[in-house]
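question for whoever is on the cluster today: can someone run the full assembly for these? two chains, 593 residues total. i dont have access anymore since they changed the login thing
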Amino acid sequence: MTSTRPPLQALIFEVTQRCNHACRHCYNVWQDPLQSASYPDGQLDPARTLELLARVIEETGCRHITLTGGEPLLRPDLLQIVEFLNQRHVQVTVISNGRLLDEQAAAALIQAGVGLFELPLLSHLGEVHNELSGAPGAWQAVLSAMSNIRRQHGQVVAAFVATRRNIEHLQETIRLAFAFGARGVMFNRFNPGGRGRERLEEILPSLGQVQTALSAAEFAIQEYGIPVSCSIPIQPCLIDHSPYPHVSFGFCSAGTDRAYYAIDPLGNLRPCNHSDTILGNLLVESFAALTAPERISTFASAIPAFCSDCDHRLECQGGCKASAQVCYGSLTAEEPFLHYNHAAAIKTRPTTTTPIPTSFG
Amino acid sequence: MDLSRRDFMKLVGISVASLALTRCRTLPVTCYAPLPPSPTTTESITTARDRLRRCWLSFGDLAQATIEESNQGMSDNVFGQQLIADHRQALDALLSEGGLTPAVADLIQEAFDAAVYHVWRSNAPITCYEPMIVDYAPVSASVLVQQSEILQELAEKGTIDQVLLSKAQAAIEHDMAYYAMTDEELSSLYERLVAEWDRQGQAAPSFEEVDLEITPDARAAAQFIINLLTRK
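^ ran it for u. tokens below:
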């Protein structure tokens, strides 16, 4: 490793922009029909892709790479990529819709070194999952994929993207995920971006719905012993986390060594997979140069004015700033979940006199 | 199933770490419940084997250090890296004494690296889109029974088709063999599932179909770790 910075904990590599589903809530930045400028299209050939990964691993010392897309299994050289990473002792997670994860594919990927699969499970009802996935047969396929992975002793977590349409199904869906051997459930409230932005108001769950769902999650954790985490930030000023002691709540880590930088199929680096901000190309500039404080500080330090006097501002950062930027054109805008529930936050928000840091370093 | 030596050793290391900590679990960012401390030893550490054993008994300290590092905004796993280096050093000393073959030593180190990484990941707060921290502790018989019962209930409701159900049940069956349950647990669960299959007029899959390929080196490495921890 050439950099003097500590090793990066994890990276996201979007191996392809192609997808065989059309999820209503899809946040892929290249799927945004409302975006005036189109996102760069295409992907590197297999040899250049491995060259890119070798360079990134060397520069960052990263030990965990999540392969996503689009649908990563649509990429013919996915197995080569996994093997390449495994040979370099990098842990590999694959985020897939499960459609192409038949027994053979599951066995090959696990054998090649995939340590964890993240598969969507959007409802205990097939028709709802299929509708939200925009693909008939998606529910059957993902449950089959979960069984195939389990049969090969692979590890699966189920990702539940909570929209207005399915949020009331959370408890039953956790139960189903548990029965199919999922080792955990990610309860991600819909985070607008990409195609999902088009139907933002139609599918964004209400505050009350998210609260009810968290209670269901808390119950399910205790009933089935399955961990549930909220990866998409849920602002503590909107919902008090303390009644859900077994649910894990995550916040944005942009700009830190725990950040989830995203690399697109062309080698463009972004602060995270929800952000459409391209920091530069890793085949042209080094990772250290692209993530130097002067280049990332605007993203990392952005926080809505509304949050400036909040005790939770440093950990919460107002929620998902990438979503704020994609939806409202500004990193310091209130992201949609905060924007729509702004009024409810005022009453519960703690205050402080601690000054806000003005620089990131 | 063709399980690679590396994967097998990672599972051994992670399982030992999970069991040592009673249960590794994700800790919420805003709420921290202390983990049980790891066993502490007052005996003198004189040999390479003692030093190795101490490393394997330090997972409680690693969990605590991870939490403290996280609270201070650090995420380098400094303590974990030190443990890995100490473990390798002790292993090399043992190797030079002729107590192990290089291949077995490398596998033991692989298991330890995976265990350290698991404990660290299980205790560092999650962040946006970081994958769920998975508890790799062996699935218990009661969990498998509960899963099987839910599947059966779903099948009876007709919300899930028979092909999918069979597939999921076959996966549970396979898990039973994979995770080392006690004979009593295994036999009780197996009898229960066989009865369910009989009720549905289906033949239960045979355990003989399960093929776990573990190499002699991997077996030796796993046995070494067990002996180390049980002072054999």
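summary bc i know u wont read the tokens: Residues 207-224 of chain A form the longest helix (18 residues). DSSP finds 13 helices and eleven strands in chain A.
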